[in-house]
Amino acid sequence: MLQELFTPSVQHALDLVGIFVFAISGALLAVRKNFDVFGIAVLAEVTALGGGLFRDLVIGAVPPAAFTDLGYFLMPLVATVLVFFLHPVVERTQSAVNVFDAAGLGLFCVAGTTKAYEYGLGLTSSAVLGLATAVGGGVLRDVLANEVPSLLRWDRDLYAVPAIVGATMVVLCIRFDSLNAATSAIAVLTTFALRLLAMRYHWRAPRAWNRRSSTREKPEKATA
Question: Where are the domains of the chain?
Fold first, then answer.
């Protein structure tokens, strides 16, 4: 199905761009945590490939693409070298990195949902795996860095919700037999736009109604 939406070369190029941007975010967190070069490389690889690796193992697409395509493995290492030597410059371009990260979120949730359905999963399960493809690497990154995953933090701008919307759009298109390059692009762009709006206006998910807590929390500036 993916081959019907995009040519293999286009799909591969989009994958590499998304992998590179996700790897940048992992490498930057490693620098902030004062990791050595090996730690930076590990966090870059995990962030970039973790979600897709989890998806492929669940659906039985083995060996996973991360181990069969050398480009997928090398791209995070390129990001590692870039951040290792130029992290002050990369930090200053964080806004641009966030924009590309939002694009990667859209691409990965759509591609992940589509691939899961190709391997025989139902619509709901495909959407869940599409979400996991898009955000799984970031969760693993934060766990390895000994942080509460930003996905679960109340003081971070919406990240999973745009991916959920994109994955839902894909399964609805599949359900009504209208998934094609145009509708897939619309799902990607919708996810992308929602993430950008969330960052611009600091949209956040609501917490428990009438919540009571003896702990006062200080919100942090969103960087995810």
Answer: 8-204
pLDDT given at position 191: 97
3-state secondary structure 2-21: HHHHCCHHHHHHHHHHHHHH
Read off the pLDDT band of 218 (50, 70, 90): low
More confident residue, 97 or 139: 139
Q: Which residues contact 88 (CB under 8 A, 6 or more apart)?
A: none
Long-range CB contacts (within 8 A, 24+) of 29-32: 29/141, 29/142, 29/145, 29/147, 30/83, 30/145, 31/83, 31/84, 31/87
**83/14 Cα distance (integer angstroms):** 21
